[in-house]
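Database export, one record per block. Field names are fixed; values are copied verbatim from the stored entry.
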Amino acid sequence: MAVNLSFSPIFIFIMVYDYAIIGAGAGGLHLAQAMLTDEWFVDKKVLILDKDAKETDDKTWSFWEKGEGKWDHLITQSWDKGVFKTREKTIELELKPYTYKTLQALEFYKDGKTKIAKASNFTWIKEEVQAVESGAIVLIQGTTNQYQAKQVFDSRIDRKFKEGKDNYYRILQHFKGWLVETEKPVFDTSSFVMMDFSIKWQDTASFTYLLPLTPTSAIVEFTLFTPELIPYDAYDELLTKYLKEELKIEQYSIAKVEYGVIPMTNYPFEKADKKGITKIGTAGAQVKASTGYAFKNIERGSQKIIENLKQQQNPSTGLVKQKYRLIDTLYLDVLTNHNDWAETLYTQMYERNDIQQIFKFLDDETSILEELRIMNSLDAGHFLKAVIYHFLGIRIH
């Protein structure tokens, strides 16, 4: 008797990507574009996952750099002069050889998406990631599908940081900005305002930031470096007051509104890295803790990750420099315990140091001697208290 055996096997094939990038914001797209421009990655399969299509102009990024940069084709405006202001004084800032540049997030998203779409080894999927399991092959659980990758770069902020059950500093850089348009030319596009302390929220580290884009349009932003947020409508009152009292502008329209909260913290985000998983962007400590600036830090960090991958090192090797984390920690201590001193702190910094040296310091490029010179230019009382606390464990009030 013949026996007829029938098999109906079900094969489930899940591609194993070489790299997966979770999140297509600044962290994810900087890293993706760094891979795209390096031939070493031409045969590597790269997956990008983001819950959003990145079709909204939700951010404005500003940064300084010397000479031409890789994003010059996207910038909205640039300046080689700036101003620092208080009610009592105005400090002119001659930036050369630096240039201060600003670009809109949507242009950055479009640029990245266009390049990625042309790369056969890249796959972009709109899906929210629910969980990631580390291992030799990392498992990624999306809302509807599962993915696998040898190495994952994750821009989602560590849950433990959000819980706040630790002793690390958490200053919030929170801001609301308006893209203001006027019928008559009222803005001087030759210079931008780095900080203007003429109007503040109570007695806090708060100031206005002004980017004149054209003679009839500018981004006006009220910013605070404080442990707590303020009422949402308070930003509007402060922006209205600044436009009326400081810029003498009565008639204007608001073309766009931007609101954001950026953590300024010494939290060791890198401790969330696991086998096959490296945190990037804000979640990877790539926001400068003492300023909230991120765009160029992330660009530099992405390039360092590329170098590490090519040398078969841990992707996060060298991303965090403990010397600068210590400096940022002292600064955050002062902001936390003496927030009302911020105007004096920044005034001394900009009045007693060249802007070129300040930029170098904020880019973590200074030597110990240069750092001591800047610290020595400030009234050292509050910083000395922070040093005593962090090295000796004694809190002096």
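Remark 1: The CA atoms of residues 204 and 340 lie 5 Å apart.
Remark 2: The chain is about 30% helix and 30% strand.
End of record.
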